[in-house]
Design goal:
65% helix; 176 residues; 11 helices; mainly alpha
Length: 176
């Protein structure tokens, strides 16, 4: 099947190829938003318990076939979307992606969610912009506070037998 897709794409013009790709990416954001909304509702109703699973995470992993990381990301975003429904609009428009929402979710307030909507980077900006954006929204302690100062300890005094002038010590200082 993959060969058929590649063969059909090779016959498209550059303009058609780009147009189809943009359409697929727009649908991808929409489908992701729908999945998150469904997971949020599933979590609210505790359907996974009636299906025989101990948690939504186990349900996503075992019943839906998601990897552990995919399940974790989507569950965190679904719970954030229940608290702040505007995140669904942002996901659908491509303004943010799952990782960005997951990183911002613990620190979101109604005021911050409105501000984030206005100033959020696009979801396709690259993986380096997401952590910087999240750090901007909820910075950790500054670097100078994290650095530990160690008291200066003078180096131990050398005895005459340890001095580099002795032949025994020089043996270790010479290049091989």
């Amino acid at each position: 099947m993959q060969n058929d897709i590649l063969a059909s794409l090779s016959r498209l013009s550059d303009t058609d190829l780009v147009a189809r790709l943009k359409g697929l990416l727009a649908r991808e954001c929409d489908v992701t938003t729908q999945v998150i909304a469904h997971l949020a509702e599933l979590d609210t109703r505790d359907v996974f318990l009636r299906e025989g699973y101990s948690s939504l995470f186990v349900y996503c992993r075992d019943a839906l076939g998601l990897s552990e990381w995919e399940a974790y990301n989507r569950i965190e975003v679904a719970r954030a979307a229940r608290r702040f429904p505007v995140t669904l609009d942002m996901l659908a428009s491509g303004a943010v992606n799952l990782t960005t929402v997951r990183l911002l979710a613990p620190n979101l307030t109604p005021a911050k969610s409105r501000r984030s909507r206005r100033s959020s980077p696009g979801c396709r900006r690259g993986r380096m912009s997401r952590p910087r954006f999240a750090g901007f929204r909820h910075p950790g302690p500054s670097l100078h506070r994290r650095r530990r100062r160690h008291p200066h300890q003078p180096s131990p005094r050398r005895t005459r037998s340890q001095s580099p002038s002795t032949p025994h010590a020089c043996r270790f200082l010479r290049p091989p």
